[in-house]
Amino acid sequence: MSYAKRDEKDTIIFVTPEDSKILADSDKLEQENDQDNGHMGAVNEETGEINWDCPCLAEAIKPPCGEFFKSAFSCFVNSKSEPQGQDCIDHFMAMKECYQSYPEIYLKDEDNETVNNEDSSNTNNDEASALDNSDESSVTSTQ
Questions:
Q1: Fold of 55-142
Q2: One MF term from GO for this chain (predicted)?
Q3: What is the Rg, in whole angstroms, of the alpha carbon atoms belonging to the chain?
Q4: Strand-pair category, 10-14 with 3-7
Q5: Chain mean position to CA 61
């Protein structure tokens, strides 16, 4: 019978030989499947080739800004500069401009809240400035 025991900050897991074999077999099977399917991540570390079919890149390469992302990411992966990607700033700036052109697609709700909060604080500051200026004009008009 397998079980786990907590010892202050550590968790100790006791596994039967049968369960251990099942876990080891499933890990081997998962590794083989990853290799067979080419799921080595976004970049093959041996060849440096970008796996555009990687699920981790699926959303980023979709239109309308997918080509900008591909250009920036390819530049970064192939960059020889120190720090890596320093020579890709123009590509990333173009990608950023594209993202900003489509806020309805690329602006997340939490980002939108930040923008709205900044806008409202600017509005509050503008209103406060207007009140300050109106006080000054009333003071100067009474003198």
A1: Helix Hairpins (1.10.287)
A2: protein-disulfide reductase activity
A3: 28
A4: antiparallel
A5: 14
